[in-house]
Structures are given as structure tokens and as C-alpha cells.
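We treat protein structure as text, and this decision shapes the records that our systems exchange. We quote a single record here, exactly as it is kept in our systems:
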Amino acid sequence: MKVVDEAGAGKPASNQQETPAFRPRKRASKRTWRFLPLVLLTVVIAALAVPMGLGVAPGFFGPGFLGAVSSPTPQVPAWQQIPNKLSRTQVVSPLDPSAPVPLPADVTRQLNALLTPDGGGDFTGVVEDALTGLSLYDRDGAKNRVPASNMKLLTAVAALRAIGPETRFSTRVLTGSSASTIILSAGGDVLLGAGPSQPSEVLGHAGAETLAVDAAKALQERGVKGPVTVQLDDGLFSGPALNPAWSLDDVAAGETAPIFPLALNSARTSPGATTGTRPQDAALTAAEAFAGKLQAAGAAAGFTVAPGVERAKPPAGQQDVLANVESATVREQVDLMLETSDNYLAEIFGRMAALSMGQAGSNDGATAAVSAQLAELGIATDSMHLADVSGLALGNQVSARQFADVVRAITSGPDTRLRAALAGFPVAGLTGTLGDRYGDASTSQGAGLVRAKTGTLNTVIALSGYVVDANGRLLVFSFIGNGLTPGAAGNKVALDRSATALASCGCTGG
């Protein structure tokens, strides 16, 4: 056996004990001095590393790690500490009725510089103090104008007053003339979804699939084996389904469609569709979708469904209700109509308001119902002419003053049912038909502040709504342009700048 020393020389193992101790140390001492700086550096690093490691270790292993160095509890900033009491609830304060009212002369000076057409045509406009009704701006405010979709504000008021904000429309399945015949009864819900009911949604709140499943259970309990015949009763409305005052080009483009008291997706091909052609028989389309869902549900319930859906009047006498689904509330539907400017839904509201007042569910009944509700509200209607209730017809004639009065009735009038429409006004730069506006430097100060219903036809543009000015005063306004140059971009900008000026107005002469 050999032992190898640092120099690599091999010696017998027995000789290791015989070698005097001082002799190998003497040889090693020369090498030790040579590496002493390196040894000292290593010792210093180790001396520093040990406490540092012990200090870092708790971060990896937790404070209970063996060898962790305890240290005083660090001072936690107050905003990071658990509160020992609840903070006071923060709420939006009501408007101060003593806030200064803008001076009409200052408002007029600002708006006259901004409310100018891009090319041909002209603008009329009215601004009122919402609390007092004081006129702050009036440019031909009593002049009749084609208002485009601002018409929907009038329809919203009529629907909330005549039908009621919390009312829901029912779509029912009734027993027919025989045990194997059922009747799908339309009740005014045109926001029916094709799938299961979605209680948290407005569009699709009631679902054709849910209605079919419930109907299938009822038929199974009655021992029906089929084939089950599905009939459609959509006789709730009367008169022409297509308003002759509408442009056929608008109908072909999908701006509206023949009006029926039952439809899927507001007479659109899918829930997400907002443009494109529409079903021309929305009620039959919805009934066929229901029959398809019933066929699927019937397979599990032990019966079949006869192909096709036929229209039929309900038999005389009382029918049993086999199944029923209900729409979102009128309040929620009105907000959707205003935010998205849904023409089809507006026409439904007009007819349903007429029916609620004991009138015919027709276009004439709808326009008469809207006029009557406005008159009852105290708004002058003698000069007003309504050709439809959605705003597509060029025959509509309404003044800016009448629209400002309607907005004032919604925001601060005595009929509190109308407050339900407030959430439906599009918000500048954020929601609905104003979502893509108020983005440039000249209008951005109005973003999030201006809330208004838009209106656009080929030569028409309108904006009616409300805003709180820089001094905390609630103002209502209506601006309408007619005879405008088609496609001129400056006209929308003129309206948006005018509304923005009201939002940032400190027009008190100070």
C-alpha cells in the first residue's frame, strides 16, 4: 500500500509513522505561503456568506427554517394593513338644485359657433335646464323636422307608460283542437332565443328550447304519442306587416322587416347579427325553430312531431297552458332598444302599447298610442306627425323642442316610470351607437359625460339627450339636421362638439 503526497511521490505506508512530524510540515509550509491569499479570501467569503444565507433562507423555507435569524417585524404601510373599521360608503351625491344655471347668451354664443352643417342643409336645436324648464338655447326649436331614430325616445315613453316597466311578454304553448295538436301562441316577445332560456340576458331571456322541453314534459304526462302537430297563432297584430312609408331599399338592407309578435333575436338570423337581411316571416321562422326543438325533446318523451308548422286561429273556448316562457322586462327591453337603436323592437313596442290602451295592434294604432301618451304627459303634439314609431319613415315630423321636453320628462319629470329609460341612452365614447364617437381632441371632453340618442338617415342626423355641465347643472338638449349632404363627416362632429360644449360649459358669466 502506498500513500501519495502532494508531490506525487509514493512511500510505504509503514514509513508514514516513522517520518518525523516536522519534516513533511516543513515541505508543505512553502506551498501554504504561496496559496495563503486565496485561502484568506475564501475564509472571508465564507464568513460573509453564512449570515447572509441565514437571512435569506427564511424567504425560501419560511421563518421556521432551522438557523433562520429572527429580526424585528418590519413596519407595514398603513394602506397595506387590515382595517380595524369599515370605511364610510362612498356614493354619488344628488345634484345640487342651487347649482348656477348657465346664461342663455353664453350658451348661444358657444353653440352657434359649433352647430354648423358640413355642406348643405341646416340644424335646429334646443337646450333646456332640466329642473326648471328654462330655455337656454333655441334655434328654430319649434320647426318640424325628420328626426330619424330619435323617434325611439317617444316610443320608449309610450311603452313605459302604457305597458309598464316591469311587464313581461309571454310565449305560450296551448292545447289545440285535439290531444295531439298544440298551438304556439305569440305574445309580443321578439327577443326569443333559439336555445335554453338565459335569465341573465335581455336578448334570449326566454328560449325556444326551454319552451319545447317543458311542452314535451307536459305532453308526456298526458300520454300523447304523436305525431304532434304544431300550429302558430300570431294574430295579435293587425294591419300591414310592412309599413308602406318605409323605403324598400331599407327593408332589403335589413334595417327592418315585416312586423310580427314573435321572432328570434329581434328578427335577426343570429344573436350577434346587427346588419344584413332579416327573415321576412319572423314568426314562422321562430315557430319552425320551436318545432325542431320539440322534435328533439319528443324523442326522449316518447312521441314524434309532424313536419311543418301551420298558422291557425285558436279554437273557441279556454285552452290549457302546457308551457310558458317570459321575456325580459319592458324596462330592460327599452334600454336595449335605445342603446342599439333597434327598429324592429321599437315597432313592437308601439303595437304593444296600442294593445295595452285598447287600440289595434297596427302601425296606425302604434302612432296613435305614442301621440296619446305624449299628450297625457303634457307635451304639445298638435304639430307632430308620426308615420312610424322607429324613425325609418321620412314622413315623421317632430321638433327639437318636443324632443327636449321628452328628455326632460324622462330625467326629471313627475312620472317616475320614465326613469327606467335613463340607462338606455348611449354614453359618449363608451356604449351603443355613441361607442365609437367622442374620440378626437375636439370632443373627448364629452366622453363618458354626454348621454344621448342618435339618429341617422341619408340626409338626416339628430342627437337628443342630457348632460351635467361643469357647474353641476343637469341640461337636456336636442339637435336635428335636415337636408344635409349625404356622407358628410363634419355633421356628426358638429353635433358631438355641441354636446361636448354643454358638458364643459361654465356658462355663468363668471
